[in-house]
Structures are given as C-alpha cells and as structure tokens.
Amino acid sequence: MAKLQGKVAFVTGGSRGIGAGIVQRLAEDGASVAFTYVSSGEKAEKLVSKLENLAVKALAIKADTGSDEEIDRAIQVVVQTFGRIDIIVNSAGLFITGTIDASDTDLVAFKKQWEVNVHGVVHTVRTALPYMGTGGRIISIGSTGGSHSPYPGIGDYAATKATLAAYTRSWARDLGSKNITANIIQPGLIDTDMNPADGLHSSAMLQSVALGRYGNPTDIGAAVAFLASDDAQYITGVTLNVDGGQTT
C-alpha cells in the first residue's frame, strides 16, 4: 500500500515549481491533495487532471496565502470536501530582494513578502490545526538563505525564512503532546521558473554546491513525502537542508 494512502494533504502554493513537485509526490504516495494557487489557474487545472490519473482525489483552490480571509475559505473548502487535514505543507512564498541601503526599496513589496512568507504560514497552521488529529504533519518550505547569506540583497527574504524555522522549532514543542510533528525543509538551488538551471548567474552559484548541479522540484517532493510518512514519526523540530551540499 502507498505510504500516504488515506491521508489528506493541504499544500499552499502548489500549482508550479517546488509546490507542484510536492503535490505530485504526495499524490503518487496515495494522499488526497488540495492545493492553492494565485495566478496559475491553467497550470493548477492541468495538475489536477494529472493527479486524478493517479486515482487520487485532487482539488485546486484559488487563494492568496497573504490573505487571512482567502486562507480561511480555502481550509473550509478542504474540510467540507475531505473531512479533515492530516498534512499541512506551507510552500507558498515570495522572493523579493534589495539591499538595506537601496534608495528605491519597494516597501509595499517587502511588506507583502512578510505577509505571505511568515504571517500567512502562521495563520494557515493556526486555522487548520482544529481539523488535524493526532499524528498530523506540518512541513514548511524554507530556504538555505534562512541560515546563511550567500550574496547581498536577500536580507528581508532570508529573515522571513529564518523566522519560519524558529516557528517550526516552537511548534514541535507546542504540538508534541498531540503527536503532531513540525519540520522545515530548506531547499538550495532548485531548477524552477524563478531560478532556472540555465539562468544568467547559475554557473557562479553552482560553485558552492558539492554535487555541482541544480536539484529538481521532485527532490523537495521526496523529502516532504518522507517527513509526512510514518517513517518520520520520531522526527520533529528539524531543519532539513536539501541543497546538494551547498551549505556543507
């Protein structure tokens, strides 16, 4: 039997890139999957069709993680459709850069990044927890930038991911008595539209990667599926770097 057979997963930001890789793997392992998207409606529907071919239930919901109201509505749709939530994967995120001394800083964009990357994640977890029973899983997608600064201009983004790691450690303590685990995965260089393996600066960035290549969204999906399974039932409060040895 598939390791996640009978489980219900809720993934934010699941229509493309790393999120889609996560959604795909959870479905391959037998979970019913609901995921959110903001603007990639066509990709979301194609992904639903692909998942249904795996004989699992799938649902795409348009919802901005930075909006409490939209996340509230999305979670209600998931619960009404599937009855509960066993696995929460916080994958939605923004990547806004800029040095602290920049004169053209877009403060509105930085505020939105915080709303999505931090507040949105916290709100998602708080809102979904009442529908999660014992043995639930909370998995957040951080960044290796949350624990080191490889180049200038990522301070605000890195701070959101470092904050998310701190929350994860606290949630592991808060929820341990309920046998709910909380872990965070920190991807390194992953080949996506946002950071393609053939990008302008990819060769330079690869100099720090022990394996000498970019990872794929499927690599993150595999890590999420492991942490969501019974094989990881004694793992909580952990920060797992999936980065090809970039931070070694």
UniProtKB/TrEMBL annotation:
Q: According to the lineage, what is the superkingdom?
A: Bacteria
* Entries under InterPro entries matching the protein: KR_dom (IPR057326), NAD(P)-bd_dom_sf (IPR036291), SDR_fam (IPR002347)
Look up and give the organism this protein is from.
Spirosoma endophyticum
The UniProt entry, under SMART domains, shows: PKS_KR (SM00822)
**Entry-linked PANTHER family:** OXIDOREDUCTASE, SHORT-CHAIN DEHYDROGENASE/REDUCTASE FAMILY (AFU_ORTHOLOGUE AFUA_5G02870), SHORT-CHAIN DEHYDROGENASE_REDUCTASE FAMILY PROTEIN
Pfam families linked to this entry: adh_short_C2
Annotated Ketoreductase domain ranges read: 7-193
Protein name in UniProt: 3-oxoacyl-[acyl-carrier protein] reductase
Gene3D superfamilies assigned = NAD(P)-binding Rossmann-like Domain
Q: Name one GO molecular function term.
A: oxidoreductase activity
**Could you read off the lineage of the organism from its UniProt record?**
Bacteria, Pseudomonadati, Bacteroidota, Cytophagia, Cytophagales
Presence of the UniProt keyword Oxidoreductase in the record: yes
